[in-house]
Structures are given as C-alpha cells and as structure tokens.
Amino acid sequence: MDSTAPQHFDVLIVGAGLSGIGTAWHLQRYCPERTFALVEMRAAIGGTWDLFRYPGIRSDSDMYTLGYSFEPWTDERSIADGATILAYLNRVADKYAIRPHIRFGHKVVSADFDRATARWTVTLETAAGRQVMTCRWLHMGTGYYDYDEAHLPRFAGQEEFAGAFFHAQFWPEDLQYRGKRVVVIGSGATAMTLVPELAKRGAAHVTLLQRSPTYVMSLPAVDKVANALRRALGPKLVYRVIRARSVLFQQLFFQLARRRPLLVRKMIRKGVMKALPPDYEVETHFNPAYDPWDQRLCLVPDADLFTAIRSGRAEMVTDEIERFTPQGIRLKSGRDLPADIVVAATGLKVKLLADVAFSIDGRAVRLNGKMTYKGMMFADVPNLSYSFGYTNASWTLKADLTSFYLCRLLNRLAATGQTTAVAKPDAEVKPVAFLDFSSGYVQRAKDVLPTQGDRAPWKLHQNYALDLAALKYGRLEDGAMRFSGAAGREPPSPALAGGMS
C-alpha cells in the first residue's frame, strides 16, 4: 500500500457543528459499514455555538426542535443559552464516539470530482500545510454564513468615535461594559438578545437603535408542561411528544401568518402592548412594514426585552444614523445618542458552502444560481450534499431529514453496486428564488445563493410534514435522481431495508 496516498473515506463531512455531528450519527446508525470523517477548520466543535461569544447568546427557537431527534433535550429551559447548547453538542459527540472521527484545524479549499473513479479529491489547509483526502461522497455541514466576516455597513464619522465600536460576531473577550452607555445597532435576534442581557449585567443604559421595526414575541424560557411530563414519564417518550407538538405549532403558526397576516399582526401587537406600559409608542417601535414571517420573527424569553424597557434600563429608538460623533451617534431626527460602546448587530454575511472551489473532472462548477434538489443537492453535481435548515422553524428539523435521506442514497448505491447519484432537472422545471424572505441578509445574498425549482422535487417546501414525506418515505427513483457507475457489490444496511426506497 502506498503510504503517500491520501486518506480515503466513503463519506467526508465538512463542519463539526450542529449539522455535521448529526450527519455523523446518522451514518453510524444507518450506514455502519461506511467509513467517514469530519473535517473542521476551527479547533473545537459547535460551529455557531462555539463561534459567537456575545453576552446572552441563546437559541431563537425551542430546543425540543433545535435538538436532535435521536438525543432528548433534558435541560429545564426550552429556550437555552449558548453554553448549554454547546455542552449538549459536546455530550452528543462523546456519547456516540463521534469526536475521534473529527480532524480539527482542517479547512477545505477545493474539491474535484472525477467521474471515471467516482471520487472526490479534497484539498485542505492545515497547520502542517496543504493536505489531500479522497471520498466517495462529500457532505457539507458548513452552515450558510461567513465566520470570518460579518455584514457591517460603513457609517459616516465612525473613525471619530472615541469609544469601542465592533460587530457582535466578534465580541471582545475583555470588554468592560458595566456602568457604560451602550448602543446596539440592529433589529434582529442578536440585538434583541444583547439589549436585555447587557442591562441585566450592569450596563448604565442600553439603547436598541433600529432603522425599522421587527415582529417580537415572548415565549416562556421554561416549558413547565414538558418538564412535568419528563419527570413522570421519562425523557425519551416525552421528548418525542413535545417535539411533535412544537413542530405542529410552528407549522400551524407559519401557515396562519401566510394566510391571515392581519390577524397574526394583531395577535403579536396585542402581546407587545400587554407587556409594555399603556403609553408606550408601540406603533413606532413594534409595527413592521412587512407581514409576519416575511422575515424571521424574534422570540424573547420570558419577555426579557420588554422587562428591560419597562425598568428604564433599556430603550428602543427607531431612526436612521446620520453620523457617528466623538461622543456617540447623531440621528437623522437630530437627536444625539451618547455612547461609550457601540455594537453593530447588523447581520451576517452569507457564504455558500464555505466558499469551497468545486470542480468536476477539473472544470470549475459554480453552485450559486444552480438549482437545488430537495434542498440538499445541486443539479448535475454528483455525490455532493449539504445541510440547510428551515427559515421558518428550527434548523435541525431539516438537517436531520437531510442526513436520513443521505443514508438512504448511500444504501441504495451499495445495494445495487453503483457509485454515483446525481439529480437531473427536466426542461419544464423553472428556477425561482432560493428563499422567499425579505430579510436583509437574504436580499444581499441573491448573487451568492442557488435557486430552487417551481415544482417538486426541486422546490423548497419550508414545511416539515412535506419534507418528512419526501425525504424519509418518498421514492428514491423519482425521475430526477439518476444512479450510475459500477463497483464491487456491497451489502445494503439492514437499518434502511424493507421498502424504504
């Protein structure tokens, strides 16, 4: 055996965050005869939950759906902080012996698929220099945003500001904010999390400065019903029941928002008015110009944002920035906001599959603009899949289904002795925008994202029930997925046998 030959695996998973660890579990469970490895560019697992370190970072959906289908969430809080979520991911990685499969400090820079051998050749940057691995199948669990750069608009006069100014994605470890005046620019989940947390931790005053309002809803951080049932019936059964309940609620609420937007707008507004003083300017600060779920809703646990506003420790300001001054920010209305610290929570920068340079037989393949199959593969690109969660529900719901479907594909190839799976669209399928979302980060990424089709299996349903039917129980031979190639015949995994394809 050539000792200089690159390491080879049946499946190479890129990314050791929520998606990658979940995919590894599925491979162990449903494709036990497959060899696999995970490559992670950072020095720790966790992805998002290890990267972001700003105060109060937490889930923006309940952990009964953000948690894995196979590992019950047992913490008392259903809306959990980042440290608890990271501990959960580490526990899963160790409990199921996934950590030994991870190569840390390995950043994928390019991947070339050779049709003749049905293999990907993957080039990685490491501390020891460039390395090469090969695999039959490449799965990208890299998320969808840039870890190295955030979206940070340039503001007039920002270099004149005498205080600290930075993006929340790169929170300074040694930042002292107790007793300081803090302005947080933004209206998304990060801003809604930071403001009450900084107020609670001793900032002198915290201002949330938004250009336009966002829909904000309060949910209990602790699901008392779930906790009581878990103590009575045990974690596994209750987890399945509460997870199903949460999925049903998410889907029903989303469909109601789409079909009866005025009703849902009134429901959300009523909740905000109940949580704030009678004379509060709800129309100014909590009345978005768009319909509910045209952008992702912001959830605040136990109404903490509203509590901070009522206490006077925090305030909402809806205005536009004219310029920074040495003492803070001057608004277009003429008001000056004094600040010692300004935090930009202005959004993320979308990056498609970690900007890996893909090619087939040495010819570059551009994935942006390419049509996606079942929200997990690309048209005409063989043996490549990716995880992309829901925009209207928890990420992991779709990631789990994607991993299960990947295992079905791998076992179909093994059962027939074939080597290649590739999706081919019909001429009748028309491309449409990948995400039907008006959020700024989506609009800024139109040239980065792929497309979807106007019909199944190319359409993104953003619906768990439909995806469950298609990915877990639908036919593999659907007219779009093509299998080819020949190799030594391998036995199928018994875990997915019995009519699953």
UniProtKB/TrEMBL annotation:
Superkingdom to which the source organism belongs: Bacteria
Cofactor(s) required, per the database record: FAD
Swiss-Prot/TrEMBL keywords: FAD, Flavoprotein, Monooxygenase, Oxidoreductase
Gene3D superfamilies named among the record's database cross-references: FAD/NAD(P)-binding domain
Family to which the UniProt record says this protein belongs: Belongs to the FAD-binding monooxygenase family.
Matches recorded under PANTHER family: MONOOXYGENASE, PUTATIVE (AFU_ORTHOLOGUE AFUA_8G02570)-RELATED
Name of the featured protein: NAD(P)/FAD-dependent oxidoreductase
